[in-house]
Amino acid sequence: MDFSALAAQLNAGAILPEGIVIITLITVLVGDLIGGRASSRWTPYLAIAGLFAAIVALVYQWDTANPIAFLGGFNSDALSVVFRGIIVLSAMITVPMSIRYVEQSGTSLAEFIVILMTATLGGMVLSGADELVTIFVALETLSISSYLLTGYMKRDPRSNEAALKYLLIGAASSAIFLYGVSLLYGLSGGQTRLSAIAAQLAADSSDAPIGLVVALVFVIAGIAFKIAAVPFHQWTPDVYEGSPTPVVAFLSVGSKAAGFALAIRLLVSVFPLVSEQWHFVFTALAILSMVLGNVVALAQTSMKRLLAYSSIAQAGFVMIGLIVGTEAGYASMVFYLLVYLFMNLGGFTCVILFSLRTGTDQISEYSGLYQKDPLLTLGLSICLLSLGGIPPLAGFFGKLYIFWAGWQAGAYGLVLVGLITSVISIYYYIRVIKMMVVKEPQEMSDSVKNYPPMRWNLPGMRPLQVSLVVALVATSLAGILSNPLFTLANDSITHTPLLKAAIAEQAAAMVSHTETVETIAIAPQ
Amino acid sequence: MTLAEGVQLVSFGLLAAMMIAAALGVVLLSNIVYSAFLLGIVFVSISGMYVLLNAGFVAAAQILIYVGAVNVLILFGIMLVNKREDFAPVRRAWLGKVATGAVCLGLFALLSTMVLGTPWALSSEAAIGDGATVMIGLHFFSDFLLPFELASVLLLIALVGAIILARREFIPDEMPQDTVGDALKLPERPRELVPASRDGAES
Amino acid sequence: MSQGIDLQSSFVQLLVQLGLPPGAAKALWMPLPMTLILIAATVSIFVTVWLERKISAAAQQRIGPEYAGPLGTLQAAADGIKLLFKEDIVPAKADALLFTLGPAIVVIPVFLSYLIVPFGQNMVITDIGVGIFLWIALSSITPIGLLMSGYSSNNKYSLLGGLRAAAQSISYELPLALSVLAVVMMSNSLSTIDIVQQQSGYGILGWNVWRQPVGFLIFWIAALAECERLPFDLPEAEEELVAGYQTEYTGMKFGLFYVGSYVNLVLSSLIFAILYLGGWDFPIPIDWVAGALGVSETTPWLQVVFAALGIMMTVLKAYLLVFLAVLLRWTVPRVRIDQLLDLGWKFLLPVSLVNLLLTAALKITFPIAFGG
Questions:
Q1: What is the rounded distance in angstroms from the CA atom of residue A85 to the CA atom of residue A67?
Q2: Residue in A426, A254, A416 with CA at minimum distance from that of residue A340
Q3: Rounded Cα gap, residues C232 and C168, in angstroms
Q4: Under a CB-based contact definition with an 8 Å cutoff, are residues B59 and C170 in contact?
Q5: What is the DSSP code (8-state) at residue C235?
Q6: Which of A354, A440, B125, C37 has a CA-to-CA distance to C222 between 20 and 30 Å?
Q7: The pLDDT of residue A462 is above 90
Q8: Residue A368 — φ and ψ, nearest 5°?
């Protein structure tokens, strides 16, 4: 193969955003190596600039004429662009909120940023990966950098414990996923590209071979671990509680979005033969996640654990969109993830701010915060209300869209479970807000009584404030001015050939499928 | 070079028996050092399987990476923290063991029915044998270019991360007059740090 | 290029003419080169030990062994017999199984590596495609044996020695493999035969030493470290660790370590000769010699002469390197363990990477000189 011909075939421009991220992270790494500790003044901003440039590059990739790159290894269609955008955006908001936190904990900032950007890179490639080897390497890039981030505060035993748990469970789930993927390789007679596998499987047999079902189960185990769906969620509360909070913020948004991107691409393109089975499994996962996530969250005393269970529940809501599989379903997933990005990151920014000031994240310690820090109280309240789905905040419209899409597609049971559990969720979100706002001055907790005065001029506090404000504004306005986001989400689905075909197929098989979902969904009530 | 059928069959049987026995030993033995050494035997047997499949390069790579690097590192880890500890015997431990065994057997039964019941799409192409090295290289630089390059980033970060986790932090002997101190605090407060003045060269 | 003599086909033909089926003739042939190499490797120990003693003595202005055999040549045999008859002690609290297995695991990969050492065009046990890579892979097994014997001796010096040995061989495997890779890149093949053939044609001028001036230095340093020769014999540094992982060993088990270390030295020298010194090539191209003599290259007697010459050249080059290693032993002081690791990771590894990149660049720029 001639070199220039090969270079033309590779269509390497499709990974320009990833290239920008790689160049930025290497610059940060080398700059820190040369500049020493002083470099922490500019490295975060360079990282933010690089991530922003990646977003700009992603915008230019929208609707590219030739999305397939690397001889079928990477697909830069609209779906991958929007998911890569979500991941980069979450990293971009996480960097400013971590500056002060990392500095304060006495660890080096540049490496933290570099590992965070590698996780971002892994997630980005995972969103576009169209071939088994790429999927696995990207998944491992994301996972290994996540383990490292989780254990980054190595002098904190809780961080170590979280990292170890995450590593062990993650490695097991990766192994199971790999086994499933290897079964796919074998079933298709040695194909690794998803489209080729699907074609080969469809050509081989009309009915689903048992090997495919086993492969499906194993693959779902890997994906469900990434998106923390019950019953693959056990790591979530412990890891969220122990890891550095900015890392949790990234894990709960970026890593989860990458998991959803993988789920959509892999399930829709490779497993149409066992479509009923995977819908069944995901319905079960969604119901369990919504019920268990929301109910267990009621009993939490730590803010980070509360947000962990809340993120499990939110993943359950997003799964409804995946299960109904209509155009509106997928679009509502994307829309919800976009909204969730802002509100969840906003919530975590507030938690970081509070723990930076007081050194704790117990919910009871938040009582009476309103008197001492109105901005923080306002921010946390808005984000939590939005997570609970109170109008007119963004979260309400996200949930509305998902439930509407589910109702349209006839998944009545799922939507009902979703509605009931989101009412439950409002209770525990409001509980925190009540704690902060309503308490009389004499009922203030000790940490709030000793609350240090506001000092935004400390190094690293400004970026924290900026990211808080950005998240807040987005959360409050995205609901009212949601039209551009709606259009973006809808376009990302309609411009993706893969999903268009799947939706058409889905519509044909609608009748029988709806019945299945309904019976399954209603059963547990 | 293709071995005669009979030799292949016998070697396969031997390798498989060796691999399964060693793997069972890894799981069942209570002495972790034995487990680690047996793991090496498992890796070597797998490499033998690759030789049987006419994949010499993969076999050599398997030995180099898994036996020469991974297993040695595992042994290193075990020997550096070889703390003998008597654990209190767990009551009804056999219950857990029986349950684990049942789950494993069930999984095995499921997988073997699946393996036997699936019409595998077998490739009819002959094994490439010694030309495999060139072929692997060609794939790495054409259709597997992206994962290949991504793996380099992954390895770089794994390296950086390992160093971060393993290195000792040094703090300056006199803390700079830090006005931040009382305004901000964190649960992840640095504890025992190694003072910088003591000679840190010994490792 | 002349194909040299093909002993295998002549042997098989001979037996077939005697009335054996070809399969049986092949089966009869198969153990022959292996046994031959095994014997040669064992004999090489005697030579090396004798050389080591004599050269060491010369370096210290002594005479060295002189009573056992002419010029003390049988000294190594005497040593071996002594080790054989010594009592084999297993320390009471040692792990007897691992204690016995350890030395075997150290020695076996070294002998296995002789599979790919060529002494002539067709004089190699197997010319497999992965060739030199097999040697690198096999040599990575050795640390397991060292760790095993270090651990099972139940002695802190042994354990430390074993750990040091493993750390050392992991650290030096990387620069070693990278410098080998640079050679492989020039010859477009992992096979040892191809590597030698790529160097032949211009006599001494074609050897890789001239094209890999940095690579061969790195290789030699790393190979010395892999063999645990001075100045890198940290694992058994007697001032610190008594005798490292060998402390508790006696008798033939100790003998196995001894054998292993000398065979490994000879093996590394052989591989060095193959990679950088043109293997069996004569310093003057043989077709020139044949041309000067006015004899056709395919003349049978000339081929026999050249084959013998090839074996001699390989062995001669290897022993030249053994001589160098012994000389280094008495001229260079031992490094400290942290210096050793620093040298490996912070100096040799980057330099060998740069060497690899440079070779790749030169290969693209001057495809004729660097094997396009």
A1: 16
A2: A254
A3: 9
A4: no
A5: G
A6: C37
A7: no
A8: 75, 15
Say if strands B170-171 and B194-195 run parallel, antiparallel, or are unpaired.
Answer: parallel
**Contact predicate A141/A122, CB 8 Å:** yes
Higher pLDDT, C267 or A358: C267
Are A209 and B121 in contact (CB < 8 Å)?
A: no
* Tokens 């605090």 belong to residue: B185
pLDDT in tens, C12-44: 788 888 877 777 777 777 788 888 888 888 888
Q: What mean pLDDT, rounded, does chain A reach?
A: 86
- Bridge-based pairing state of the strands B170-171 and A74-75: unpaired
Q: How far is CA A309 from CA A135, A238, A292, A313, C153, in A?
A: 28, 11, 8, 6, 52
The b/e string for A127-142 (b: 16+ C-beta within 10 A; e otherwise) is: bbbbbbbbbbbbbbbb
- Picking from C101, C189, C200, C224, the residue whose alpha carbon sits closest to that of residue C151 is C101
Smallest CA–CA distance, residue A488 to chain B, in Å, is 28
Residue ranges of the alpha helices (H) in A325-460? 327-358, 369-372, 374-388, 394-408, 412-438, 446-449
* CB contact (8 A) between residue A204 and residue B119: yes
Higher pLDDT, A48 or A6: A48
**Whether residue C21 has a cis bond before it, omega within 30° of 0:** no
Residue of chain A with shortest Cα separation from B171? A106
Widest Cα–Cα separation across chain A: 79
Six-digit token string for B122:
């077998």
Choose, out of C93, C108, C132, C133, the residue to mutate when testing the contact with B (most B CBs < 10 Å).
C133
Q: In whole angstroms, give the CA distance from residue C229 to residue C262.
A: 10
Chain B contact probe: residue of C105, C141, C154, C188 with most B CBs at under 10 A: C141
* Chain B adjacent subunits, 3+ CB pairs under 8 A: A, C
Q: How many alpha carbons lie under 13 Å from residue C23 in its C-beta half-sphere?
A: 2
* Interface contact C133-B33, CB threshold 8 A: no
Residue B165 contacts A, CB cutoff 8 Å: yes
CB contact under 8 A, A138 and B147: yes
Q: Which of A1, A154, A455 lies closest to B142 in CB terms?
A: A1
Contact B63 C144 (CB under 8 A): no
DSSP 8-state class, residue C20: -
Q: What is the DSSP string of A227-270?
A: HT-TTS-THHHHHHHHS-HHHHHHIIIIIHHHHHHHHHHHHHHH
Q: How many CB atoms lie within 10 A of CB C100?
A: 17
Q: d(Cα A318, Cα A422) in Å, to the nearest integer?
A: 13
Cα C111 from chain centroid?
Answer: 9
Under 8 Å CB pairs connecting chains A and B tally to 156
Contact B186, A104 (CB under 8 A): yes
